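User: Look at the shape:
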Amino acid sequence: MSIYTMEKLESICATAAEGAKRKDETMEVQVCLKGYDLKRDKKFDGSVVLPFQKRKNERVLVVGDRNLEEMAKEAGLPFVLYDDVAGKTKEKKTMKKKFAENYHAVITTNTFHKYFEIAFLNRKRTPFYIFDPNGGNLKKFHDEVLRTVKFKLRQTNVVSFPVGTLEMNPAEISQNIRTGLDFLFTLLKKGVQNIDTISLKTTQGKPLRLC
């Protein structure tokens, strides 16, 4: 069952671009769900890689040990040591709060859980991406993170995700939207039947209804 067409997507993207004050604004898809009992139904959690980058300047922080620090330096990525953020002192909490405010995402390893309190950044909805340093290429992994969106049902029936900037052409943004929505439908218990409304919104613009 199709609830939108690529032609309609491209038309709405073009309309959003025409009315935007700045061309570097990020476009976001906002999906309102129906038929979900947030207290009883199983909450979904998944991610998908989009064809194109989802933000113009995605800020990603790498958190790890000395070995990962060298890889981050080679890739030209911002880095912080586990030991520098571990702990619950006022100073450490302030540091983590700044990370949550200044970065869109965090790249780390499985051992991260032993040193850092994920709960804090989760409350800020900062997504985490687990990197395997054994044979993995951090630069390629980071490039994939820039195109990855995560879907997680929380305490509201609204799910949103970024799909690009208005500097991109409508066809590229539309491909990102379609990839993200098609994957989201697979996570829903009744697929598109759980969709109430879908809107597109730029950073400073008004929502444009897709369906």
Notes: Residues 170-187 form the longest helix (18 residues). The mean pLDDT is 87. The first strand starts at residue 26 and ends at 33.
